[in-house]
Amino acid sequence: MDAKTGFFYLFSVVLLYAAFRVISARNPVHAVLHLILAFSQASGLWFLLKAEFLAIALVLVYLGAVMVLFLFVVMMLDIDVEGMRQGFWRHFPLAATIGALIAFEMAVVLMGGFRGVEEPKAVAAAVNAAGQAVALSNTKALGLLMYTRYLYPVEIAAVILLVAMIAAIALTLRSRKDTKAINPAIQVRVRAADRMHIVKMAATQQAPEASADEPAVEEKKA
Question: What does pTM read for this prediction?
Fold first, then answer.
């Protein structure tokens, strides 16, 4: 067994263990941490398949952004673990049936659809300006396809994502009467004279002198 096969079995075993712990861990934080471990092992498998772009994208997008966000959200939420455990065995038969069905369908696709397929090559042939074939990595070949042949679909997808982002911001920033939001433009145009008024007062003031009737009143009270 060569080193590549050994790493494949190592990544696969750790990936299966992490995936099992994701669905079996009682603590949600532990489940998220095992999901991060599963994604890292999947990235290693992508590297073994010489798909470095997908492996790096998996690490940057999921491990670096999505899973960190999930971890912060899970840690900030007050999840009732005991309440989630109630009714587990009542729904277990249905969940086990659906899981077995999904596993069977994936096994059929993997065993029948990828049989006899050779290992993907790490380089793709490209032709330069002089007409000579140049070896490119799959990342560069993917970039050439995205920004040459599929340039318009990529631009359309980017515009759709931009419109969705602007719409989400506009929906969350709607003006409501019960909010105490302040217009930043008004804050910028404000002057110090409009916010604070200086009143001139004497530094010291003499105490008022006691009148002649006050001692008599005190004697009557005594």
Answer: 0.54
